[in-house]
Amino acid sequence: MLRIIIFISIYLAVYGGMHLYLYRRLRRGFELARGQRLAVFSFLLLMVFGPLISRGIERLGWEGVAEPVAVLVYGWMGVLFLSASLFFFVDILRLAGWLLRRVARVSLPGMVVGWRPLSIGVLSLSVVASCYGFYAAREIRVERVVLPSSKLPAGIERYRVVQLSDIHLGVMTNEQWLRRIVAEVNSLKPDLIVITGDIIDSNVPSSMPYLATLSRLQATDGKFGVAGNHEFFAGIDKSVAFLNEAGFVMLRGDRAVVKPWLHLLGVDDREGRHSGVAVVDHEVPLMAANDPAAITMLLKHQPVIREESIGRFDLQLAGHVHQGQIFPFRLLTWIAYPIAMGLTDLGQGSQIYVTRGTGTWGPPIRIMAPPEITLIEWVAK
């Protein structure tokens, strides 16, 4: 209960604060009359609680209502974030211009612009960028990563692993979009498919309509995965049952010997500690049984690296951060997870690959963070 209270308090402070900031800028920029101010304030106040209302409707199972509400609420979230970011950037520029005039007695042309044209420009750009981001979020890229290894046995020149992550199946999932993903993955003819969490968004019943499509993913040596924080939000037992039914073997502190020369280690997401169920989110105990002659792949949802694990696995796969999903939010995710997207050499024979993810969370848009399907090709060294 305390954790929920803390979360809601932080949510209201941050998300409510962004709305209040935008309200003040709109009020100043458009010189709103009293009735207009009341209408704008009421809409923004409703949108502050919009995500909570949307989740509540979804939990009640009112799918017909939940989808349009979610589109409105989360579409607005994207516009809000972009607008607030642009207004903040404008405020920084205006502050810099004011300091130049006051301190250095320098006046730059174009630095003094009325609030009304600024506000119109910011809102127009935010809407256009959101429309672009909606389109960009559906343009999936296949990222190919080639990893030479001397651990492949004689006669095997190439082994193909597809990684999927952060699909976030829910009320805003488009069935046609999911079919495109499945068709793209199957066209790659993978030997193995792995998922690194957040396949489900927040409610298993909202994911059920997509079970049949997800089940069509095919790989010669099977499908494996680990749970992300959203699987725990949705209820880990129900989430695992759903993914099992889709054909995935879920690794929750387990080792899977896919081939004598290829081992998978999988652990729970660390957010599972707060779910009230037992979790295994520490991989080091699993590594006691490592075979140094085998390729060891570690599956974790968040790109968190334990120093004591480096040198004891060949490749760690992770997701979670979506590369920020909407620029400039990626700057904040980099502070929380200071590791580059893509492939990073950790030394001692270990590497990590962090995917941008395939779907979206919250706003159904992506800007400067295109969705991806990752194809990892182990090749004979």
Summarize the structure.
This protein has 381 residues and is α/β, with parallel strands linked by helices. It contains eleven helices and twelve strands.
Spatial arrangement of strands, main beta sheet: 1-12-2-3-4-5
Measured by DSSP, the beta-strand proportion falls in 15-25%
**Beginning-to-end CA distance, first to last residue:** 53 Å
Topology, number of strands: 12
| Total DSSP helices | 11
Task: Give the helix level as a range of percent.
Answer: 40-55%
Class from secondary-structure proportions: alpha/beta
- Low-confidence segments, given as residue ranges, are none
Question: Whole-number radius of gyration?
Answer: 23 Å
- Mean of residue pLDDT values: 92
Rough outline: globular
Order of helices and strands: HHHHHEEHEHHEHHEEEEEHEEE
Largest sheet: 6 strands, mixed
